[in-house]
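Chain A, query sequence.
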Amino acid sequence: MQPATAKWYDRRDAVFVDFCVEDSENVKVHFEKSKLDFGCVGGTDHIKRQNTVDLFGEIDPKDSKYRRTDRSVLVCLRKVEPGKAWPRLTKDKTKCNWLSVDFNNWKDWADDSDEDLSSFDKFSEMMNTMGRDDVPDFDGAGEQHDSENGDDEQMSALE
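Chain A, predicted structure.
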């Protein structure tokens, strides 16, 4: 039995752990207040994987969930104390060779404020607050331009 390779990241209300096991079968995930048990058979060689994690903080076992895909098993651990950052996944500070931080999904939300929204968040907020009549004219289609060099001819259609 071997541990499954995993990546984790922290969010305001939950911690996510992605167990990287392709073609997993017989997936078993057991949630306790401060512990996570994961087990499956996976990979092309059908190796049995088992991980037990003593968690940094407490979770809500009833509200925690997991989802299996062909490439991995994503576990969502609902925090008992939303808004409290987890500096690590495990209770102990010892390094687990099978565990790493998922920097692609990591977001330093603890320092976020409404002023520091990402560009996407700002764009989404702008689009949600705008009414149909408030849509700006980005391409200048409504403006009339005087041409200085007399190139007012229409372009012929490409064939």
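The radius of gyration is 25 Å. The helical segments are 119-129.
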